[in-house]
Design a protein that fits this description.
436 residues; globular; FAD/NAD(P)-binding domain
Length: 436
């Protein structure tokens, strides 16, 4: 059984309005200042900065530009950091933990201003984000966190008690929640298409369907091998994230590609959408295998995403799980038809923090841990400034030691089904302990 039995299409909903496309073949330069691996959000943002500064730069993508996570994600501008403040403080020190929190605010504000100043037509709306609490004890903890966020970062963040919940979401599944008004939604495939447009206009060359197969040190630069030929590059920036392959084995041992899947409903009646999502906010919850969901940019459908425990093919079980989750939150949608179900890779590392780092002369900007809409352009641009030696502009809390290698891992995430199962058990235990 495959997805076609439960959803009309297995391609991203986003591709209906902004399909990924091949690019015309470009001549291969013999020498370049910078070669970039990957033409997603991070690679294009970095390439645009470098090209505008007069560097000769080309991005190489193994697929159509944007065909990976950049056009498959949920389009939520969350900039989420997986570890909480206490965990980050324990592992990296309180100074870096605070810097990460402040940088999240800066990165979101930068993205919104970048969309405005560059004139990127990507359906962006700063609508806010509602996060549901599974029980009253969790609500209390989340409410304190919202208050701390408002005081620390001056973010419009507040608790929503259960009695007021239906003003934000048409369900009784949660026991209240919290709202952040600095998070919005956009059309990710349109954002990529627009970023590609401005990057090309800036002078970046993009080679589509041209994977880099090897990178070797040569003199004071690098020899970059592709099926189209060999390029001599003074510098190399790796922005492959969840689609990292054997061309960069050092990074591949540190990033684990994890499947994430999203479903999109058929068009819903306007009165139903108004009842289920009265403020058209982005939505989420805190379970390990919880869901994130949102209205489509035109407000006619609901899109819901979560982790996909499958590793090969396009089986129906993950789609059915998401559909069951949708019905659990919104019982009125139990019989709804699904128009789309698709998946893509997010890149996780052991400490779950995005990263910029240098190793053996190569600069890496990857590991966005499922929040690449905000982090990928931001981290890509900081990495570009790092390549140019612009220390102040390159400054980032994510620029520090490489993430640790994953033991016994060389590119095949054989352990992911077991990890997903472990998360499911933890979620079930937490549910049993929840005071509802």
């Amino acid at each position: 059984m495959n997805t076609s039995t439960v959803a009309d299409k297995s391609t991203p909903y986003w591709w209906e309005a902004a399909p990924v496309k091949p690019l015309p073949r470009q001549p291969l330069a013999k020498k370049l200042d910078v070669v970039i691996l990957g033409a997603g959000f991070a690679g294009l943002a970095a390439g645009m900065v470098l090209a505008r500064e007069g560097r000769s730069v080309a991005a190489f993508d193994a697929m159509h530009p944007g065909e990976g996570a950049s056009s498959r994600n949920g389009g939520v501008t969350s900039g989420t950091i997986r570890p909480d403040f206490a965990t980050m403080s324990k592992h990296f020190g309180e100074e870096r933990a605070l810097a990460v929190e402040y940088e999240g605010k800066a990165a979101r504000e930068f993205l919104y201003e970048f969309i405005r100043t560059e004139g990127l037509d990507c359906d962006f709306k700063l609508v806010g984000h509602f996060k549901g609490a599974l029980g009253y004890n969790q609500y209390d903890k989340m409410a304190r966190s919202a208050d701390r966020l408002a005081k620390l970062l001056a973010v419009d963040s507040y608790a929503v008690p259960h009695a007021s919940q239906r003003d934000y979401i048409g369900t009784d599944f949660y026991r209240g929640g919290t709202v952040r008004m600095d998070i919005g939604g956009l059309h990710p495939a349109k954002l990529h298409a627009e970023l590609l447009r401005v990057a090309l206009a800036s002078g970046l060359t993009v080679h589509a369907n041209t994977p880099v197969t090897a990178i070797t040190r040569e003199g004071d630069g690098f020899r970059v091998t592709t099926p189209a030929g060999v390029v001599q590059a003074r510098q190399v920036l790796v922005c492959t994230n969840g689609y990292t392959d054997g061309a960069v084995p050092y990074l591949r041992r540190r990033l684990v590609p994890v499947r994430a899947r999203i479903i999109a409903t058929e068009v819903l009646a306007p009165e139903l959408m108004a009842r289920l999502m009265p403020k058209l906010m982005m939505m989420g919850e805190s379970r390990h295998l919880g869901f994130y969901y949102r209205p489509s940019p035109d407000g006619t459908r609901i899109l819901l995403g979560g982790r996909d425990s499958s590793r090969q093919g396009d089986p129906a079980a993950p789609t059915l799980r998401l559909r069951a989750g949708l019905a659990e939150i919104f019982p009125e949608l139990e019989a709804v038809r699904l128009a789309h179900s698709w998946y893509g890779n997010v890149a996780m590392n052991r400490d779950m923090i995005p990263r910029i780092f240098e190793k053996d002369g190569l600069v890496y900007a990857s590991g966005f841990c499922g929040s690449g809409v905000v982090w990928a352009p931001w981290v890509g641009m900081r990495a570009a400034y790092k390549l140019m030696g612009r220390a102040e502009q390159a400054r980032s809390a994510f620029d520090f030691r490489p993430p640790a290698a994953v033991p016994l891992y060389r590119g095949n995430p054989w352990f992911m089904p077991a990890i997903i199962k472990g998360y499911a058990v933890q979620d079930q235990i937490a549910w049993w302990r929840t005071r509802r």
